[in-house]
Amino acid sequence: MKKLLNFLLLFATLLLFWVWLNGSLAADVLIIGVISAFIIALLFRDSLAVFSGLNPTPRALGYSVLYVFFFIKELIKSNISLAAIVLSPKLPINPGIVKVRTRLKSPMGRLLLANSITLTPGTLTVELEGEWLYIHWVTVESTDINAATARIVAGFEQYLEVMYD
Amino acid sequence: MDALLPILGGLLLVGGAAFLLLGGLGLVRMPDLFNRIQAGTKATTLGTLLTLSGVACLQPAWGLKLLLIGLFILYTNPLSSQVLARAAHRAGTEKSSKTMVDRLAEDTGEK
Prior knowledge:
The structure holds two protein chains of two kinds. Chain A is mainly alpha-helical. Chain A is 60% helix and 12% strand. The longest helix of chain A has 30 residues, at 58-87. The mean pLDDT of chain A is 80.
């Protein structure tokens, strides 16, 4: 049952993106889309899908929207701080790889967290191992696990926690 | 409104180009691979997104497709950086002498 649901979800997502990309509902476009979406969905139905693990509650949906805004804000902040570093003649960096911990359990939640961290101020996820994330930080402020977690992870986690289990 | 959109689009394009330029400068100035990836990823993501929104203002009919391209970049850009960084770390790429701490090397060394 779960497999069938996964298959259908993946198939629908793929077909939606195909039609979106083509911008047409002509018969030949649709037929090619259906055939290729069917084959891909058949091959990858057991893999992670965009919606797997997403809580189907209105609250989670609302948090997804908030998350997008928070993310855009962080992305802009990240670019400005990076611009300041790159443009300053002394190149004030202080790099290092720190270890942080996440409370998120769902693989998709962790993936989104790792991706978000990579796109936000001075941090880059290098390795993900269970609940531990290794983060390359351009300006290390703390090497302590708890302090670094609060600084890097907590902001995103408060949203992702509601969206995913 | 019709007069404003092209101006907004142009401004967004210039902004996008500025961030892409900064990203390129970062690639040259940063001392080691990890810092370079950081400069590259962030600047190219925002720079490309701004450029895409600029184009969307100039050519509103392309909007949906541009949004799709933006989504694709948002998902794939950080992923490729992570995989590059991980591969580099596993291959033992030299780190800048400014590097303070490397918990990952400490932890994998223990195993």
